[in-house]
Amino acid sequence: MKTIITTVLTGVILLAGWAQAAPAFKPFQAYTRPAVSLNGEWKIIVDPYENGYYNYRYQPFDQMEQPSRNAYFMDAKAKHGGDLIEYSFDDADSLTVPGDWNTQKEKLYYYEGSIWYRKLFNAPKIEEGQRSFIYFGAANYRTDVYLNGEKLGQHIGGFTPFHFEVTGKLKPQNNSLVVKVDNERHKDGVPTLNTDWWNYGGITRSVRLIVTPKVFVRDYKVELENHETGEISAYALVDGAGAGQEVRLTLPQLGIDETAKTDVDGVARFQTQTVGTQFWSPQSPRMYQLTLRTGSDRLDDEVGLRTIETRGKQILLNGKPIFLRGISLHEEYAVDGGGRVTSAEEARHQLQWASDLGVNFVRLAHYPHNEHIVRLADQLGIMLWSEIPVYWTINWESEATYQNAQAQLEEMINRDKNRASIIVWSLANETPVSEARNRFISRLAAHARELDDSRLLSAALEKHYSEEDPELAIVEDPLAELMDIVSFNQYIGWYDGRHEKAARVRWRIPYDKPVFVSEFGAGAKQGLQGDANTLWTEAYQAELYRKTLAMLEKIDGFAGTSPWILTDFRSPRRPLPGIQDEFNRKGLMSETGTPKAAFQVLKDYYRQKAQEPRALENPSESQ
Ligand code: GCU
């Protein structure tokens, strides 16, 4: 049985020059909590020299006893004609939050550096004893936050939520919230300098002001322990009370109504059983209302209940073998020239396109996506792979880099551990094998299992060829031993020969584990007609899909794939004029959602796979 280990996360700040490790933020289940939205127009100051952060001797203003009023976070205004203030938010330009800055203003398209954001807001009515928090869905990459001139803290990482308690710090009117976002890439960063996606900067997800009672449910986890017995375990982490605080858990549609008391860590644990639970699955994504109450607090959510595990070379959902009919996806909605996904509506469009393919699985590459798409996948019955951006050539030797990666892992798992749709936590993508890399990712794997042992662990590995036989492809990597499914990316027919090579290659994958092909694909310019041997034509991409799928079908233990990628996406690594124009063209659709010929090839294949006995996910009822 799975053990529930709660971890009340404490921050670890290792100061190593710039590469400060990210503090691991305490969990905070905020999505369903009522909130005051701070989204909309924010005033901005573009600050490539960080003139608003350092004085002319390059000393950080926010580490001074009395920061100069020329520090931008002071949001100062000249008081009289002799008062020298060399900036003004009131008279500045603005950006919309949430949203990347690159696609909001032509002059910011390539910008990498710091931009200051300022929001003035009035505090909501706050009762005596209540507590208040400012919650950020995400901001890329390093974020420093100040309220009314006081530093609240810093977050590092571009794709996970963070928050600051502001109890007692709010004024009734005109609170000045100043946020510096710096999207500069760093060798010691996570990700590192080199990625195949656009480095969108900014406050890319929502900002919300949340008021809670003094004692409130900060976090919880609910899990179907066993699909045969219907056993359910859960815990609630209560903030503001010590041991002995009563917590009530109800799932009314399942007739669950339990109370438990918190222990010294503020954790209340529940163990119960249900009969007649309709398990969550792609064919039947049954969701159940859940409520946690403690004192005057109430936290509502909706959860799906399912188990996911492997047995030999099979992936089992609720004890039944499934085949993952997937597609990979970046968090980009470039219709009308947009960038990062900014709304549930855009996320819905992405999943609609994926559903048109006939998928039951989406690989959210290469970083945690927005919470909208994860919750939509719950509702639609689409299984997900969620990943931290430990991508390519990370600095494996740096402890601060490890702490940063671990903090992002914790923040990803904390946010989404109750989402039935997520069945895979991925720790890395295409990382070169080395002792240091094995140590780094082994530590992450152990930590991930500590935080959540109810999901499958994986990472996209790479293939190599046998020295004796140039057409024997091998997937053999020390990391595979740590993973539940052996995933790898391969580009036979694109970076590795042409598509006819796929008919000749055989595979050796020496693990008694399910095999998942996390990427394959080819570039094609949507609308470019030509024969199937001409690169960049739709016909070439379609033929590569046909040949590759035939090759993968021969792999023993082939349990699914998420071809690269649903739609074309921006990348500074793809300049080819007239073809790429700074887009990676491996999409099955153009960046505006126009399908290419290969879209139909994959759709036909998935329709056939969905008819196979193994692939039929029958919604199973608990006995
Ligand atoms: C790699 C990588 C992707 C990249 C793709 C490509 O497999 O994982 O992030 O975009 O190849 O080269 O198109």
Essential attributes:
14% helix; alpha/beta; 3 domains; 6 helices; TIM Barrel; Immunoglobulin-like; disordered C terminus; binds alpha-D-glucopyranuronic acid; six-stranded antiparallel beta sheet; 623 residues; Jelly Rolls
Question: What does the model show?
Answer:
By secondary structure, the chain is α/β, with parallel strands linked by helices. The protein has three domains: 36-212, Sandwich (Jelly Rolls), CATH 2.60.120; 228-305, Immunoglobulins (Immunoglobulin-like), CATH 2.60.40.10; 316-518 and 558-567 and 602-615, Glycosidases (TIM Barrel, Alpha-Beta Barrel), CATH 3.20.20.80. 14% of the residues lie in helices and 29% in strands. The strands form eight sheets. The protein has an eight-stranded parallel barrel with strand order 21-22-23-24-25-28-30-31, surrounded by four helices. It has a six-stranded antiparallel beta sheet with strand order 3-2-4-9-6-7, with no helix packed on it. A four-stranded antiparallel beta sheet has the order 1-10-5-8, with no helix packed on it. Helix 3 (399-416) runs parallel beside helix 4 and helix 5 runs parallel beside helix 6 (597-611). The protein starts with 35 loop residues before the first strand and ends in a 12-residue tail after the last helix. Alpha-D-glucopyranuronic acid is lined by residues 196, 366, 429-430, 489, 519, 564, 584, 586. The site of alpha-D-glucopyranuronic acid has 9 residues, from loops.
